Amino acid sequence: MKFYANPYNTEVQGFFFERFDEFEEKLSNTTDRFGWIVEEVEIDVIDGTKEELELVKAIGVNQGNLEEVIEYIESSDENEWPALFFLLDHNIVQSFEDAKDKVEDICITESRLIDAASELFDECYGHSIPDNIKCYIDYEAFARDCEIGGDMTEFEFGGKTYTCTNASGL
User: Fold this and answer.
1) CA pair distance 86, 109, nearest whole angstrom
2) Could you tell me if 90 and 162 are in contact, meaning their C-beta atoms sit under 8 angstroms apart?
3) Is 90 exceeded by the pLDDT of residue 46?
4) For the segment 58-113, what is each residue's pLDDT rounded down to a tens digit?
5) Residue pair 87/106 in contact by the 8 Å Cβ criterion
6) What is the 3-state secondary structure (H, E, C) of the chain?
7) Within a 10 A sphere around the Cβ of 20, how many other Cβ atoms?
8) Cα separation values, 142 from 43, 131, 139, 155, Å
9) What is the model's pTM?
10) Cα-Cα-Cα-Cα dihedral of 109, 115, 118, 119, to 10°?
């Protein structure tokens, strides 16, 4: 990922960086016209994959959590990113730390809500319904009820559609 450190001091020019050690080095060499080291900057995300950009936006990267965010992006399994994004974007947790702790508790499937609800219905009830009656099942109504009841939530992340299948239990 590529970031830009934009100093709050408007007399000072910002800088681009990709690693935290690079950020620290450049920040320690950034001074104003009086020779004072500039300490506070706004962190802007400039480049990355669509998933990285959306995740970092949901996390709310800032100077205080920058090292942790960069480390997480570089070392984490990308398959857990949709769950982390969901937790933060839907305000289920209030902090990045809480989201990382809760990411294992969430069930995410890469599918539309209707598909996830249909699969759940078939797994739970399909075996007891005769084949000649299955064509009368209104999967869309079941999916809508799951969504209204808070049991399932469909969301977009990185250009893909996901469904959280245990939204009410979080």
Assistant:
1) 12
2) no
3) yes
4) 999 999 999 999 999 999 999 999 999 999 999 899 899 999 999 999 999 999 99
5) yes
6) CEEEEEECCCCCCCEEECCHHHHHHHHHCCECCCCCECCCEEEEEEECCHHHHHHHHHHCCCCCCHHHHHHHHHHCCHHHHHHHHHHHHCCCCCCHHHHHHHHHHCCEECCCHHHHHHHHHHHHHHHHCCHHHHCCCCHHHHHHHHHHCCCCEEEEECCEEEEECCHHHC
7) 16
8) 44, 18, 5, 18
9) 0.84
10) -40
Residue 111, CA atoms < 13 Å, CB-side half-sphere: 14
157-169 b/e (C-beta count within 10 Å ≥ 16 → b): bbeeebbbbebee
Q: Give the length of the chain.
A: 170
Count CB atoms within 10 A of the CB of residue 94.
Answer: 10
Q: What local confidence, expressed as pLDDT, does residue 49 receive?
A: 95
**Rounded distance between C-alpha atoms, residue 36 and residue 7, angstroms:** 13
Tokens 């970092």 correspond to: 56
Residue of 1, 13, 5 lying closest to 52 (CA atoms):
1
| Summary mean pLDDT of the chain | 93
**CA 69 to CA 47: how far, in whole Å?**
15
